[in-house]
Amino acid sequence: MKIAVVGTGYVGLVVGACLAENGNDVVCVDTDGPKIRALQRGRVPIYEPGLEELVRRNRNEKRLSFTTALPRAVRASDIIFIAVGTPADRDGSADLRFVLAVARDVARAMNGYRVIVDKSTVPVGTAARVREVVRRETAHPFSVVSNPEFLKQGAAIEDFMKPDRVVIGVEDPRAEEIMLELYAPFIRTGAPTMVMDCASAELTKYAANAMLATRISFMNEIANVSELVGADVDQVRRAIGADKRIGPSFLFPGIGYGGSCFPKDVQALVRFSADKDYDFRILRAVEAVNAAQKTILVAKMRAHFGSLKGKRVAVWGLSFKPKTDDMREAPSVPLIEALVSAGAVVHAYDPEAGRVAKGIFGSRVTLASGNYDALKGADCLVIVTEWNEFRRPDFARMRALMRAPVVFDGRNLFTPAQMQQHGFTYYSIGRR
Ligand SMILES: NC(=O)c1ccc[n+]([C@@H]2O[C@H](COP(=O)([O-])OP(=O)(O)OC[C@H]3O[C@@H](n4cnc5c(N)ncnc54)[C@H](O)[C@@H]3O)[C@@H](O)[C@H]2O)c1
Fold it and tell me: Ligand 1 mean position to 161 CA, how many Å?
């Protein structure tokens, strides 16, 4: 099939590359000229495992191309995916400016029937608004489909290639048939395709992210109570995760969720519920718990050191989660801002997010060349992101490099007993 994907970010680029890998002709469109030029030269501007190779292969085989020229891409395609950002507006609602602008531009370029697919995460009613915008601009026939994306950054290709399920919100049989044909190669392993109305598809995406964010905030509260009552949250987590009704995923306590999705999607769901005079109380609490959890390590550091002024702090991990360079809403940002404004000197290391971090912190933070490099002369180490390479460090080497053997672990990578054995003062989440 001939496909255009508009918006070449963490989602659009993965979707485009994976659709090309299955034999479709895909053109990826973006307004960001430097990004498109880099991609045309074979350079992938973001870090996502396996993506560079996939892009290179499909580009070489001429199934995947990149352009800033939307009209030409629309005329060459049967299906147009909208995968642009939907950031939080000032009042927390999803900002649909980019989605609606693309819908208008697509409509103006159409020269026959097109399927226009909302891949961006958008509030209920957006498919109807897109339909309205397109109808105003063109007399050509078209269908609007809501096809939310559930991929996880860090495992995006695997998730898109072998999805748990495919959700297709569609309101006419012609578009339904095309979408089922498009997704057929991705669901051979038996994953269900769920065809529904557009409103239900749109709400499904928010419900999924809100549920996951709720689990995280719930476990963070269990962790905080564990500390107060002398329980070990890891034991509690394993025991409740064994219950089939609960399951083991997404029960790890930490220093709050971040990223480009959970914070803005939770906010948007609260907001569009409020627009219908519904107060989504659970999610307001989920947000408040998350905001508080992001401050928890600094509080532990203040309790240990008193003043943080002049303390040299090593930070391991900056991205909002492992295997991505994305730092949008990353807990590392408010943490480091708090440390710097308290007068601490921060030496940070991240395997992939260094370049992004440089853009955020400039010269206020020193970026180390490796995780041990960050530890030289440090008064403590703070672990912020659970990259695999941090899980089995050489503890003797760490102690030799640090001025004081103190670790604040925001991801519970180690056990208190193990750290005591290695001679560290160790603070973690939900354990004594
Ligand atoms: N990142 C994720 O893990 C994830 C997962 C599922 C769904 N989503 C949703 O997918 C959407 C995209 O997310 P993302 O993380 O890929 O965003 P992103 O910011 O990485 O990428 C968005 C891209 O759209 C481009 N763009 C903006 N306006 C444009 C226009 N008018 N024409 C062409 N391109 C334009 C931007 O230049 C940018 O490259 C969001 O709605 C998000 O909520 C994201």
Answer: 19
Query: Do 80 and 6 form a contact (C-beta atoms < 8 A)?
Result: yes
Query: Does pTM top 0.70 for this prediction?
Result: yes
CB-ligand 1 contact for 52 (6 Å cutoff): no
Q: How far is the CA of 99 from the centre of ligand 1 (A)?
A: 10
Q: Which residues contact 300 (CB under 8 A, 6 or more apart)?
A: 408, 427
Q: How confident is the model at residue 189 (pLDDT cuts 50, 70, 90)?
A: confident
In the chain, what's the furthest Cα-to-Cα distance?
73
Is the pLDDT confidence value at 332 over 90?
yes
Pocket test for ligand 1, best of 5, 10, 93 (most atoms within 8 A of CB): 10
Q: Is 18 helix (H, G, I), strand (E, B) or coil?
A: helix
Residues belonging to the chain:
432
12 in ligand 1 pocket by Cβ < 6 Å? yes
Q: 87: CA distance to ligand 1 center in Å?
A: 9
- Locate 376 and state its tokens: 């030289």
Contact 426, 402 (CB under 8 A): no
Confidence of residue 432 (pLDDT cuts 50, 70, 90): confident
**Contact by Cβ (8 Å): 135, 104:** no
E strand or H helix at 29: strand 25-29
Determine contact, residues 154/322, Cβ cutoff 8 Å: yes
